[in-house]
Design a protein that fits this description.
Layout: E1 3-9, H1 21-28, E2 35-39, H2 47-56, E3 61-66, H3 73-86, E4 92-95, H4 103-115, E5 120-125, H5 133-149, E6 153-157, H6 164-168, E7 175-179, H7 186-198, E8 203-205, H8 213-226
Parallel strand pairs: 1-2, 1-3, 3-4, 5-6, 5-7, 7-8
């Protein structure tokens, strides 16, 4: 069995999104396995074309590492279904867990909150109306962050239950918004615009994890768990949360 590593990004329908490709290039240098990337959305550099490139190099088993935070439709349905459909009958695959519960992501969130100005912290994730687990995970993360950071932290979603605008309109005084996303894409821009337009008091927007050392460490953590690179316990930020 010859193993290859496939980084799977969300992507955009209208064009190739370069977000986080620099981080992937850094990670590819850590492994001797054949590796490439592919997008879930869009018609260029697709998930399928990435898998085909690995197969052309003699790969028979693909380790798919999704650059996704929560286990929802893309991670649980689209990714495995499309891999199964595009691989040869003799090909196999394994999909890594999503990134929200890595120790690196948790420490990254905590550092953002600790360095943020005073105010009510509102964490905004993507959300989904189809699965309950992402919201459960988000609540657990926010409860732990509140305890560790000694801050009041509320959770919300862009879509699905706990809508961010409904939560935000109940908040008075300074607001600190933490978009729980991996890219500074159109959704984060929409969240910023809508909260700015509706919240009467001061609002601070914290950055996402796009091209960050936190994202690098979270993916490195997953690569260690998959056996793509040796695992070293040298940092608490590189262990599973």
């Amino acid at each position: 069995m010859t193993t290859g590593l496939l980084f799977v990004l969300h992507g955009r329908k209208e064009r190739i999104a370069p977000d986080n490709l620099t981080t992937i290039a850094r990670l590819q240098k850590l492994t001797e396995l054949p590796s490439t990337y592919g997008f879930l959305e869009g018609s260029h550099a697709t998930l399928e074309s990435g898998a085909e490139r690995l197969v052309a190099q003699g790969v028979t088993h693909i380790l798919a590492l999704p650059l996704l935070l929560f286990p929802a439709t893309h991670a649980l349905e689209d990714l495995p279904t499309r891999l199964k459909d595009c691989l040869p009958s003799t090909g196999t695959y394994e999909v890594a867990t999503t990134l929200a519960t890595t120790k690196a992501i948790y420490h990254g969130l905590a550092e953002k909150i600790k360095q943020a100005p005073a105010g009510q912290v509102l964490v905004v994730a993507h959300g989904t109306p189809h699965y309950e687990k992402p919201l459960t995970m988000l609540k657990v993360i926010c409860h732990q962050l509140a305890a560790d950071c000694q801050r009041s932290i509320l959770w919300s979603n862009y879509v699905g239950p706990e809508n961010y605008l409904e939560v935000a309109k109940k908040i008075t005084g300074p607001l600190v918004v933490l978009p729980f996303f991996l890219t500074e894409g159109h959704i984060v821009k929409a969240i910023t615009q809508k909260i700015t337009a509706t919240h009467r008091d001061e609002v601070t927007f914290l950055p996402t994890f796009q091209e960050s050392d936190t994202l690098y460490l979270a993916l490195k953590e997953e690569m260690e768990d998959l056996g793509c690179i040796p695992s070293y316990s040298t940092s608490a930020s590189e262990k599973s949360f």
